[in-house]
Amino acid sequence: MGRFHRHADGTVHQHEHADAHADDHADDHGHGHGHDHDDGHEHDNGHRDVGDHTGYPETGTDRVAVLETILAENDRTADRNRADFERAGVVTVNLMSSPGAGKTTLLKRTIAELSGRARLGILEGDIATSLDADELDGLGAPVSLINTSAGFGGECHLDATMVRSGLGRLPLADLDLLIIENVGNLVCPAEFDVGQAARAMVYAVTEGEEKPLKYPVMFRACDMVVINKIDLLPHLDFDLDRFLANLRAVNPGAGLVQLSARSGAGIGQWCDWLVGLQARSAVAASDRS
Amino acid sequence: MHELALCEAILDTVTRQAGGRRVDRVHVRIGYFRQVVPDSLLFSWELLTEGTELAGCALDIEHVPAIVECRSCGARTTLDAPIMVCGTCVGSDVALLCGEEFLIASIDRAREVF
Fold it and tell me: Could you tell me the residue range of the domain that residue B46 belongs to?
């Protein structure tokens, strides 16, 4: 391998002498910008120069350190969202799941249950259609829809910029809680910070016990795992203990609620968690001021 | 399939860092706990760079394993499954040392402007 050099102007780079290049050889050259291959230096010993000087004899390459996270831009926008949420005094939950786990049904229940306890808003992400948003509309919580279908056939997740684009349609200052219903997908949404205070996921007992091991990034990312459709347990071979052991192996610290969004059993515990988040955040905000 | 979105982000950063110079290769570091399909990432990269000044620029993916350090016995374990357990004492009080990287590490950039 080549070596990193720091120059007076602060740039760090590495002259590329990859693979079979002998170490003692590397000491003999390559310490200046004028790295010159015509100096009689023997490069035939398996040396593979990735910079490929042959096509561009007059310009070699330097390895320049970047060291920036791939999602740096998304993270900056997420921080702006987070600052806006804090300023408005609204606690935001990023709600994720696979398609059909019951996010929308859970939200319908949640709107009804929280009525009078907390002012709830919904940001609804879907690849296409307003079906879910329509279902939630008129239940007493403001709903803002973001379709992700722009671009290459629809993004499979919400990112911080998409969330930001939907915020203008919500009365943030009048809300206590905002739930962002992410696109149904167990892979991509886990990778994108949208500025939430907490991440929660809905897992349905019809999905199988091995899901935490198969989608560890999602299960690891969550502060709360809602186990939904427990009314179906008598009809399934589902082994709840095995699922819980798998979940704990991947994420020992996640909160847990078992419920049925269909029957309403356990909804109170989920709503208590939401209200508790909001109460803790309000205390933290008053401590800061 | 968020690899396309990731490549858009990589492309933005690299274009900024290139400063109008040719870039032959981009080195990214991706940890075990990131759900990136390398082939999809490479495909997306080719698709997105085509017709831009970064056309033909190679994307070099370095995989970073997940290594945990046990808070009880101090042993380090390289995980071969996403299970946060010490390989020595089987304790689960472990800290992740690496494996969540999602980094544009460096670029091989021409010394002179085009």
Answer: 3-12+22-113
